[in-house]
């Protein structure tokens, strides 16, 4: 089995790199934009095309029917978003679609693989920067084949924290997001940042550029690959209430260590999000 997953891991890296090249090329042409859950939740033909390319290549390589797929664009067309014990690929073809549309240079292809509901490996290709992040359970995390590690900062006053605004602009949620950010800024921390892609944000935690990233409202495809990369770089993942991380819960804190993560958690104003694996009628 172990060798089989190694082949899958290596193949995921190849597929992510090829997908990133398609995104880069598409960014040079006219981009037609549509919307999904809200007027600021953007999608383009490139998101759909790249997801088809990724899933098509994986099916061709590993055989139709043996593996399951959770892809952002397939789920938006009401394909199931349920993690079972079967080998499952969790894919965000274009993480940072808003960045892609605007030419803001952080866009990632995110591919994760889970077996028995456990994440085995994750690959995040930051395609505009041409940086390949990857990690396999128990084997460390890498950026362009160099090992990466989270920062060793324990003093929150010496930290940079990342968060995002998400795509739900209901005033009550935005109020909570900004109130949390204000409290964190006023701890004070050195700075608050956001790249516009959750996958890249997690890689920034993993390589020690920032101490933590938290968000409520993200989806499993935004963070599955990054989760493996953060853990393998020595970091940790928690729920925003301090409990165990739950991939389908749409909320997460990823941090370099528990001291920093706990300090952030103290300030987070939690709001509800419908779980990724909720029955479609509830979404
Ligand atoms: O660009 P997508 O794949 O839609 O993912 C983004 C998500 O939609 C936003 O809510 C988050 O704030 C970003 O960090 C995601 O990466
Ligand atoms: Mg995404």
TrEMBL record:
* Name the record gives this protein: Inositol-1-monophosphatase
What's the source species for this entry? Dissostichus eleginoides
Top-rank taxon of the source lineage equals Eukaryota
- On whether Ubl conjugation is a keyword of this UniProt record, the answer is no
**EC class name:** hydrolase
Q: Which Gene3D superfamilies match?
A: 3.40.190.80, Fructose-1,6-Bisphosphatase, subunit A, domain 1 (3.30.540.10)
What is the protein's major site of localization? cytoplasm
Q: Keyword set for this entry?
A: Cytoplasm, Hydrolase, Lithium, Magnesium, Metal-binding
Q: Which GO terms describe its cellular component?
A: cytoplasm
Q: Where does Mg(2+) bind?
A: 72, 92, 95, 222
Which Pfam families does the record associate with it?
Inositol_P
User: Per UniProt, what is one GO molecular function of this protein?
Assistant: inositol monophosphate 1-phosphatase activity
Pathway, per record: Polyol metabolism; myo-inositol biosynthesis; myo-inositol from D-glucose 6-phosphate: step 2/2
**Which InterPro entries does its entry note?**
IMPase, Inositol_monoP_metal-BS, Inositol_monoPase_Li-sen, Inositol_monophosphatase-like, Inositol_monophosphatase_CS
Q: Which SUPFAM superfamilies match?
A: Carbohydrate phosphatase (SSF56655)
Q: Which family does it belong to?
A: Belongs to the inositol monophosphatase superfamily.
């Amino acid at each position: 089995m172990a060798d089989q997953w190694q082949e899958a891991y290596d193949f995921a890296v190849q597929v992510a790199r090829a997908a990133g090249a398609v995104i880069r090329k598409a960014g040079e042409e006219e981009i037609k934009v549509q919307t999904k859950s809200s007027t600021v939740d953007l999608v383009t033909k490139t998101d759909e095309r790249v997801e088809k390319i990724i899933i098509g290549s994986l099916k061709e390589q590993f055989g139709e029917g043996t593996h399951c797929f959770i892809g952002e664009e397939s789920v938006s067309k009401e394909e199931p978003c349920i993690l079972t014990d079967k080998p499952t690929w969790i894919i965000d073809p274009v993480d940072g679609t808003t960045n892609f549309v605007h030419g803001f240079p952080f866009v990632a292809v995110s591919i994760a693989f889970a077996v028995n509901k456990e994440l085995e490996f994750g690959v995040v290709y930051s395609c505009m920067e041409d940086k390949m992040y990857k990690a396999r359970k128990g084997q460390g995390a890498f950026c362009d084949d160099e090992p990466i590690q989270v920062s060793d900062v324990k003093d929150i006053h010496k930290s940079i924290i990342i968060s995002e605004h998400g795509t739900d602009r209901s005033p009550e949620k935005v109020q909570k997001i900004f109130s949390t950010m204000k409290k964190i800024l006023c701890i004070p921390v050195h700075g608050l940042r956001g790249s516009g892609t959750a996958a890249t944000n997690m890689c920034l935690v993993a390589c020690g550029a920032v101490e933590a990233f938290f968000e409520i409202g993200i989806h499993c495809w935004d963070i599955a690959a990054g989760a493996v990369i953060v853990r393998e770089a020595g970091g940790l993942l928690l729920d925003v209430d301090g409990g165990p991380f739950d991939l389908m819960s749409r909320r997460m804190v990823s941090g370099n260590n528990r001291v920093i993560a706990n300090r952030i958690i103290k300030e987070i104003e939690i709001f509800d999000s419908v779980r990724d694996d909720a029955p479609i009628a509830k979404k």
